[in-house]
Structures are given as C-alpha cells and as structure tokens.
Amino acid sequence: MKALRLVPRLVGGGKGKAERIDREFPYAAMMITMMASSGVSPYESFKKLRAVDLLPAVQEEAEDVTRQVEVMGYDPLTVMSRKAETARSKLYREFLAGYVTAVRGGSSILNFLKSKLRSMFEVRSAVAKQSIERLGTLVEAYMIMLVVVLCVYILAAVMSSATLSMALGTAVNTYPFANLMMFLVVPMVSVVFMMIADAQQKSNLISVRRPYEAALLSTCVVAGVLAAMLLLPPLQPMVGLLGLPNLVSIGLVAVCIPPSLFYLRIARINFAAEEAMPSFIRDMTETRKTGLSPEKSILHASMRKGYGRFSKVVSLIRSQIEWGVSLKRIFGYLKEQLQSWPVLVNFLMLIEAIEVGGSVDALDVLAEYSEKTRDVEKEKRNMIKPYIVLPFVWSVLIALVTTTLVLVLNQASLIFSLEMPAMITAEQASLFSVGIILQCWISGLFIGKVSEGTLAAGFKYSAMLTVTACLSLLASQRLVSGFMGGLSF
Questions:
Q1: What are the distances in angstroms from CA 477 to CA 151, 220, 377, 390?
Q2: Share of the chain above pLDDT 90, in %
Q3: What is the rounded radius of gyration, in angstroms, for the C-alpha atoms of the chain?
Q4: What is the pTM of this model?
C-alpha cells in the first residue's frame, strides 16, 4: 500500500515537464470545460485526453490519472487531490485543487471551469507580454555583446600591426587571438544566446524539417563551390576579381534562398490558418445556434469568403464532408496539410465537441478562447517587430565605424613614415570584413529564433542582413576612401 501511495509522487516531476504542462494545459482546460458544457465529467474528459497526442505532457498526466482510477481502484477525486499536492506545474496544481474543492463544496462545476479558464488565458496574455520584454532585453544584450567583441577585435588588430610594432620597438602578434575571437568565440556566444531565446520563445509550428534539409543541401553545394574557387588555380582569379567579402556574401545568401522559400511557403498557409481558424469556428458556432446540425453548420461556415489562404483548406474540408468522410479522417488530412499547433488543437477540440453532441455552450467556449489565443499570438508578433530592426541598424553602423577606423589607421601610418607598411593590410581588412558579414548572417538566425520561435524563420533575415552588411561595407568604403584615400578590401 505504501508503494501505491508513492506512485503520484513519481510523475509530473522536473522543471522541463512543468513548463510543457503550463504551455499545454490551457488547451486541455478548454477541452475539459467544453466537455462539461455538454454534460461530460472532468474525469471522462481526462480519459479522452489520453488520445490527444498534440498535448503530450497532458496526455501523460491523463494516462496516469486513468491508470490510478481504473487499475489501482482509487476514487477520481482522491487521485486529483494527491496530484494537486505533488504536481510541479502551478497551473495544473491550482486547477486540480480548485476542482476538488468545488466538487466537495457542492458548487457549480461548470462555473468554476469557466472562471478558471478565463483566469488561465488572462495569465497567459500577461506572461506573453513579459516574455516579449525579456526577449527585447536579450536582443539588446546580444547587440551590445557584438559591439564589445568587435572593439576587442579591432584593438587586437591594431596591437599586432606592423606600424605600431615598429613605432614601439616591439613585435606583438595578436592576430591569431583576434581571428579566434571573430570566427570561434563570437559564433559560440551567439549559439548561447539562441539557446536562451529558445527557452523564452517557442514556435507554433511542429515538424518543420524541409527548410533544414534544404539548408543542409545548399550549404554542401556552396561550400564545394567556394572551396573550388579558393583552391583550384584556374578559378582563383575570380576570387581576386570579386573580392573575398563579396564572394562570401554571395555564398551565404545562396545558402539561405532554398530554406527561406520552403519556410515562407509553410509559414504563409499556417499563419493564415491561425488567423482564420477562430473566425471559422465562430461562424460555425453562430450557425449552430440556428438549429442546424454540426456538420451542416461546418458546411455553411465554409461557404463564407474572406479566410485568405486558409480558404483552400476550408474548401477541401467542405468537399470531404459532402462526400461523407468522417471528421476524424478529415483531421488526419489536416495534419498533413498544416503544421500549426494551435490550429490543429482547435480543430481536434471542435471534433471532440461535435462527438459529444455539439452543444452551443461547448462551441461558444471553443470560439471564445480560440479567438483569445489568436489575439495573444497576434499581440506577441506586433510587440516583437521593433526588435527585428536592431540587427539591421547594427549592421550598417558597424560597417561604417570599422571601415572608417581601418582607413584612418592606415592614413595614420603616414605620420611615422611613408616607407613603413600600412597599419592594417588589405588582406587583414578583407578577413575582418568577412568576419562582420558572417556574424550578421548568424545574427539573422538569432532574430528568426526570437521573432518566430524557430531557426528556420531566420534564414530570410540572414540573407537580408548579409546583403545589408555587404552593401554597407562597400558604401562606407567608397565614401570614406573618397575623402581620405586608402586601401581597398
């Protein structure tokens, strides 16, 4: 008996799982509230949640609750009460404790569920705003880190320059350290920032593989072409003609184009579905209030124009219903066409609500909170947009500042002697430009992770930042050289 009593303490542990439950449970609570509106008890809803693989953390908890009730013979309220004491997730713990108290106190279960669900989404909205503020701070810290590292790089380059060494009578070679900073330390720090961003921002898209596969293929092709141009004597004159920074820029943009096209195709249809799905559910709910069956309500709602790119999916759903295809099979088709987690969860809940009778109250709950979810996601995207501009400003400024500094340092060498070598050679300046361009490319991946929760979204930003950095370097070089003269790189 002691062993049996310890079972609840062995589940739900771990901060990682608690975070997953916090993310998934508002949708599970929505489903429980919908089922309760149709007369289904929360325990029966937990049994249904065992089949919802889109909510894996909640699914595991539902499996455990059902096992303890049906295998070990505990009362559902006893199991939920024990889980309320041991669950790591505060959201889950408070829901179970409140439900148990409501049942034992004889109050209205449905009113409690609706009140708790409303509170969950209000908290979710507040947490989303706080996460945007943290992401904004993260982006600003990342930009500051890049400026500091580049300053260190410039200082190391100056300290190892031939002119300064001859002037001071010393021979200090800090270029290996500078190159190590630019091509190893800074990328590693960027990876750390991406990991922090991953903990703050999760993507709504699931199973996004095609952009990464395309990126791997294009990287192999571009790397092969660049290696051939650098190593094969017949192709080496092209490197001198184009310039190493321009050649690297072309290669990095070429790497980004295929995955960007794949991701844009995925993002357009899925973001359109996230925008239109709540309106579709609302239209279906309002039609259901007229007395039509749930299936006919879906058909009537699908005839409305104005769903954007989601209209094509809605038309296919309508045609399959007209041919007598079950909603479960239609959901399987929808999972093949869409990868947006909120859209798939909402459609699954719509199916579950219809299967238990499709009551107007249940559909009203689904429509209301699917709209709230859409509004929260929309607000998050609008709040994060200003931070996307920062890397572009940084790219332009760092190109102008570094180009000016390099040319000024080389002009300063004339003060010592016209016969002394330049403080920074053309080869060193070219390598420095490559480092700036490469870092801008990596920054694009970071911004994609911050803005949309996935690195796949960063390929388009990487391409744009690479072009921005390259053009800024060329423009600032031409501008400063026009006033002062100097080396070309």
A1: 19, 31, 42, 22
A2: 8
A3: 29
A4: 0.80
